[in-house]
Amino acid sequence: MKFIKRLVPNIYIGLILLFLYLPIAILIVYSFNSVPKSFIWGGFTIRNYTNLFSGSDGGELLEALLTTLKIATIASVVSTIFGVISCLGIAYMNKKMQGAVMSLTYIPNVMPELVIGIAFMLLFSFLGVQKGQFTLICAHIAFCVPFAILSINPKIKQLDKNLSEAAMDLGATQLQTLRLVIIPEIMPGILSALMLTFTMSVDDYLISNFNVDSSTQTLPMKIYSMAKFGVNPKMNALTTILFVVVLALLILSNLSSFKDAKNKKK
After folding, report:
1. Of 21, 134, 155, 241, whose Cβ has the fewest other Cβ atoms within 10 Å?
2. Residue 61 neighbours by CB under 8 Å, 6+ apart
3. Of 28, 57, 58, 56, which is closest to residue 44 (Cα–Cα)?
4. 161 pLDDT higher than 80
């Protein structure tokens, strides 16, 4: 009976992992398929990866990727800075105000992206702002700030206020206390916020679709337009590269956390 009780949860977890990662595995396998735009396996080739950097489709994909990475980098950095400032401000409020403000910041997290995209489109139209990369970056920043607060706020709550008070008693200014005491203590939350907001910005389609003109295309918009005409092997190759990069970053992050925990134990 004990063996069965242990086996059933393991099978359940295995089925969930299979359901989650089997599509990604199929995507990676077919990125090496020699038969273009087909689900029939025709042999192994790396031509899809070499073609990614040549031809009109490949050039447009790379241009969309660079645009997406630029927008995501700016949006993640700015939203994380706003998140740090917001969390520090919330920490010095009374408990009732903290609850009210945090409830307001949670609303965009559960709100459909469609609503946010249309709302910003109407706002920019009302202000007479020409849609482009600037409006897209502003919309992404506003979209990402609540997620940055969600990642940083727990670390602010875990922060020992005696550390900052002791630093100022020893002669440190408020800026030095922030830079040398508070920021290092909440750095794991800041890094989590950067990674989360960067991923949210790269992955976004709806907000981007409503708040940018036809001259600018992000990677999700470009992939969606290409998917209308069937399976593109260059699209498989590019998404495989993105998956491998993200997986490598996660492994490095986990190894760093493991080393830090090991050093603290020592």
Report:
1. 21
2. 52, 219, 222, 234, 235, 238
3. 28
4. no
